[in-house]
Amino acid sequence: MANFDVFNGDADGICALQQLRLANPIQSVLVTGVKRDISLLKQVSAKPNDAVTVLDISLDKNRDALLAVLKQEAHVTYFDHHFAGEIPNHENLNTQIDTAADTCTSLIVNHHLNGEHAAWAVVGAYGDNFDTSAEAIAKSLDYSDDELAELKQLGICINYNGYGATVEDLHFPPDELYQALHPYADPMAFIKESDAFKKLSDGYQQDMASAAALKPELENAAQAVYIMPAEPWARRVSGVFANDLAQASPDRAHAMLTRLNDGGFVVSVRAPFSNKSGADDLCRQFETGGGRKAAAGINVLPEDQFDLFIEKFKEAYPG
Fold it and tell me: Which of 63, 231, 249, 265 is in the most buried spot, having the most CB atoms within 10 Å?
C-alpha cells in the first residue's frame, strides 16, 4: 500500500498538509507544483488500497482523474474550498469541502484536527489572504502582536513562492519548501532557525518593490487592472501584489494580467473585500479559468480574449 499527498503549491496547500502530517506522520509520495498547476491528481498512479490525500485543488478540475483513482479501488480523502461541482458518491471517497467565502483548506483541516496544530492554520489563512479568519484562530494561541505579524509575513512568503509559470520561476520547488517546513511544529521556530525564510522574505521585498512601480491600465472606484511584464519577478509577485491591493482598497475588484512569453496572459482576480464573491464565476467563463468566490484566475488568457475579459470583469464588478 502506498500513500500519496497531492497538494497545491501555495501557502494554503502546504500549511494544510503540514498540519495533517504533524498530526499523522506517514511516508508519502508528494505530488505538487506551482500554484496554477491544479490538475495534479492525474499524476497519481494508484493501486487497490492505496491512500490518496488531496488538499486545496478543485475537485471539478480533477474529476476525471479522481474517478480513475477511485476505479483502481484506492481510498481518497479530499480537503478543499474551491468550486467542486457535483461530488461523486463513492464508498472510498471522503470529502471535506467547504466553499464558503471566508474559509480556506488550512482552516478546514484545522477544524478536522480540532485545532491540534492551529498555528500552521493561521499561517495558511494569512497566506491565502484570510486575515480575519487567521486572527480569530490566533486568539486562542499564545503569540504576541509582533509574533503574529511575523506569522502573517511567513504565510505571505510561502504563498508568494507558489506563483510562477514553471517551478524554475520559484525560489523553492513547493515539495522542497514543505520538507523544509515539516520538522517545525511551531512556525516561529522555522522563522528564527531556517535560512529558507530569509531567502523568501528578501525575494518578496525585492519583487514587491518592482511591482509598486507599475501603473494601472484601468483604475476607478470599482475596478483596477494591472498589466505585468513577461518576467519571472512579475510571475512570482502577481498574486501577493493582488492581495495587497485588495486589502488597501476593499471596495474595489482587482485583476493582474501577467504577460506570457508565448503570448497571452496569466490572470489573477480578487473580488472586493467588501463583497467576496464572483471571482470564480468570472474566471470559469474562460477555458483555463477557475478558483474560489473571493480569488480566482485564468492560466492562459489568449491575446484575442483580452477585451472580452475586461468586458466581463467590468460586468462582474460594476460598483
Answer: 265
From residue 6, alpha-carbon distances to 56, 82, 224, 271, 312 in Å are 9, 15, 34, 27, 33
CA distance linking residue 226 with residue 214, whole number of Å: 8
* Residue ranges per structural domain of the chain: 3-202, 214-316
Burial annotation 18-57 (CB, 10 A radius, 16+ → b, else e): bbbbbeeeeebebbbbbbbbbebbeebebeeebbbbbbbb
Query: pLDDT tens digits for 226-242?
Result: 999 999 999 999 889 99
Residue in this structure with the C-alpha cell 484536527, named with its chain if needed: 113
- The model's pTM: 0.88
CATH architecture of 3-202: Alpha-Beta Complex (3.90)
**Percent of the chain predicted with pLDDT > 90:** 91
What span, in angstroms and rounded, lies between the C-alpha atoms of 306 and 65? 31
Of 270, 261, 275, nearest in space to 225 by CA: 270
